[in-house]
């Protein structure tokens, strides 16, 4: 029994190290002094952390980060607001049976390559390349189906009696939605909006093709740091850490929703 | 009367969502099909109002002869197959391990973090980790006597590097889904099997695995779909190279359009990918229903 406990403990440790080491390595690289970078054997820790490269990375990613917040914020708000109505309707009135909701979910898994070409040509023709709209619109193809399914799930977990009671008390139908359903699923709406935001924050392909300079997003900026005067590994790692930390924190805070979010494909660039 | 007005109300609530989806999904899809039948080459200068020349099925016929596309398809099959095998066995293994533990909340959270790292960051960090001379992976391997694997820089290992990194990021997904599945198993069934003397391994094969099957199949489905879309990590980590050694099919479709400027050809490849995907999906869904 004793030996078994030790074997288990070792296995947990191995799993933890494999899961966390790359994240540790990214953060470590961002604070390594230059003479400890790319050495052999590699430095697995440092006693002289150097924050200079964070100072170089922050001005580089500042504007892309503002762009990304605007784009992801718009995508999150539009998706969640539309999904409150349609998700509620799907859950309560079973409109379109199972087919329509599944059709909507399947859009989430459509390969981006099949729509990236028409998006590029359309935006070019409309003169919208390198504008916020050019990125917000294709991001809705993922954000909206995900939000509909999340809200649909939250509503179907509510007992229907509350709504019935409210309508007997003279609440109109929109009143039921506004005064009963929305307050009850408010935490769910926040989680939905947050994870649509995160998805849009990490998306790369559409942002790469449809932005140039003005509305360049954070992932595009980070991917493009290869061209700047050789590879500045510390600054890249600092930028990567800046882009990742908010998601890690949100994921830890909202961990009890993660199974559902991952099952609807809520996180993936 | 009440029934009809209810249905009208229900549809009215859905209408805005449907309209937005028609604009952002259905219309671009139709447009994409249109472009797939044209010689939409960005190097052609068009007069205002002019369309790219219609060339019928030429783009699709070209795909049949394009060995670069066929190689990319084979690579994708390898990428998905090996990746799934690693992620399923490791994910299920860790989920079973966790299930044996009483205080596991913090551990589950820590183990899920890889899935939360932004893909472009995964790409860059992967290049650091698998750096042939200064990377920690090769250093640790050298302690065990394995030397000089080129990883991202070698045509032989670049695709494997991508698979390992995808597995690092998405094994936690399989783990979390299986773990949730394990928690919802009927406890009596597992206990009574134990009473009947089923040992750990037999218990797993004959009782737990069949009960988990529906959950696992859905997880596999999601993973296959996501792996076929893989793009961002490939872009940063290998850019399909060296040569075309890690060029999977989505990446080639992208390159054809936005590096070689043949948008029509790219759109046609996109449609072939969608058709292949639908076939795989239908087969998988049939297995799930059975």
Structure write-up:
The complex is a heterodimer of chains A (269) and B (290). Chain A is globular and about 75 Å long. Chain A has 2 domains: 1-50, no CATH class; 52-263, MetI-like fold. Chain A is mainly alpha-helical and 269 residues long. Chain A contains 12 helices and no strands. The model of chain A has no long low-confidence stretch (mean pLDDT 88). Helices cover 72% and strands 0% of the residues of chain B. Chain B has 12 helices and no strands. In chain B, helix 2 (58-65) crosses helix 12 (263-289), helix 3 packs antiparallel against helix 9 and helix 11 packs antiparallel against helix 12. The mean pLDDT of chain B is 88. At the A-B interface, helix 1, helix 2, helix 3, helix 4 and helix 5 of A face helix 1, helix 4, helix 5, helix 7 and helix 9 of B.
Brief summary of the model shown:
Chain A is mostly helical.
Short descriptors:
heterodimer; A: 269 residues; mainly alpha; MetI-like fold; 2 domains; 12 helices; B: 290 residues; 0% strand
* Beta-strand residue percentage of chain B: under 5%
Radius of gyration computed on alpha carbons of chain A: 23 Å
Please report the number of helical segments of chain B.
12
- Domains of chain A (count): 2
Q: Which runs of chain B of at least 5 residues are low in confidence (pLDDT < 50)?
A: none
CATH architecture of the largest domain in chain A: Orthogonal Bundle
What percent of the residues of chain B sit in helical stretches (DSSP H or I)? over 70%
Give the amount of beta strand of chain A, in percent: under 5%
**Percentage of helical residues of chain A?**
over 70%
Tally the helices of chain A: what do you get?
12
Low-pLDDT ranges of chain A: none
Major sheet of chain B: size, sense and barrel closure? none
List the helices and strands of chain B in order: HHHHHHHHHHHH
What is the helix/strand order of chain A? HHHHHHHHHHHH
- Quickly give the structural class of chain A: mainly alpha
Largest interface: A-B, 86 and 83 residues
SSE-based structural type of chain B: mainly alpha
Q: What oligomeric arrangement do these chains adopt?
A: heterodimer
């Amino acid at each position: 029994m004793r030996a078994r406990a030790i074997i288990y403990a070792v296995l947990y440790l191995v799993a933890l190290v494999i899961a966390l080491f790359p994240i540790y390595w990214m953060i470590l690289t961002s604070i390594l002094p230059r003479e400890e970078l790319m050495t052999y054997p590699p430095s697995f820790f440092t006693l002289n952390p150097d924050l200079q490269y964070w100072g170089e990375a922050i001005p580089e990613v500042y504007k892309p980060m503002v762009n990304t917040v605007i784009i992801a914020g718009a995508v999150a708000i539009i998706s969640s607001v539309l999904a409150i109505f349609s998700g509620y309707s799907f859950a309560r009135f079973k409109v379109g049976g199972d087919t329509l909701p599944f059709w909507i979910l399947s859009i989430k898994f459509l390969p981006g390559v099949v729509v990236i070409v028409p998006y590029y040509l359309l935006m070019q023709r409309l003169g919208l390349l390198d504008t916020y709209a050019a990125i917000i619109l294709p991001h809705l193809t993922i954000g909206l189906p995900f939000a509909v399914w999340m809200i649909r799930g939250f509503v179907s977990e509510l007992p229907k009696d509350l709504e019935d009671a409210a309508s007997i008390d003279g609440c109109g139908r929109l009143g039921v939605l506004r005064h009963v359903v929305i307050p009850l699923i408010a935490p769910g709406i926040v989680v939905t909006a947050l994870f649509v935001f995160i998805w849009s924050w990490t998306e790369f392909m559409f942002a790469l093709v449809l932005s140039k300079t003005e509305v360049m997003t954070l992932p595009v900026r980070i991917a493009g740091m290869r061209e700047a005067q050789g590879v500045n590994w510390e600054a890249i790692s600092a930028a990567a850490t800046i882009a990742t930390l908010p998601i890690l924190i949100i994921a830890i805070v909202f961990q009890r929703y993660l199974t559902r979010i991952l099952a609807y494909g809520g996180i993936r660039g | 009367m009440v029934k009809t007005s209810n249905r009208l109300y229900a549809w009215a609530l859905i209408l805005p969502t449907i309209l937005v989806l028609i604009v952002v999904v259905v219309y671009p899809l139709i447009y994409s099909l249109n472009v797939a039948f044209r010689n939409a080459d960005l190097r052609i200068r068009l007069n205002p109002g002019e369309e790219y020349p219609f060339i019928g099925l030429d783009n699709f016929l070209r795909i049949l002869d394009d060995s670069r596309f066929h190689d990319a398809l084979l690579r994708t099959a390898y990428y998905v197959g090996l990746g799934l095998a690693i992620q399923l066995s490791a994910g299920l293994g860790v989920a079973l391990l966790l299930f044996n533990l009483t205080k596991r909340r913090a551990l589950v959270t820590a183990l899920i973090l890889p899935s939360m790292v932004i893909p472009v960051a995964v790409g860059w960090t992967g290049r650091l980790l698998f750096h042939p001379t200064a990377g920690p992976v090769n250093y640790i391997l050298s302690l065990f006597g394995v030397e000089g694997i080129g990883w991202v820089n070698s045509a032989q290992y670049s695709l494997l590097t991508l698979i390992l990194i995808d597995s690092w990021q998405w094994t936690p997904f399989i783990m979390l889904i299986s773990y949730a599945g394990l928690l919802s198993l009927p406890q009596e069934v597992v206990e009574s099997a134990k009473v009947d003397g089923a040992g750990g391994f037999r218990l797993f094969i004959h009782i737990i695995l069949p009960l988990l099957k529906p959950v696992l199949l859905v997880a596999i489905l999601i993973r296959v779909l996501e792996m076929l879309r893989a793009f961002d990590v490939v872009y940063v980590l290998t850019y399909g190279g060296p040569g075309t050694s890690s060029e999977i099919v989505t990446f080639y479709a992208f390159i054809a359009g936005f590096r070689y400027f043949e948008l029509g050809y790219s759109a046609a490849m996109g449609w072939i990918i969608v058709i292949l995907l639908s076939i795989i999906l239908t087969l998988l869904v049939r297995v799930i229903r059975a």
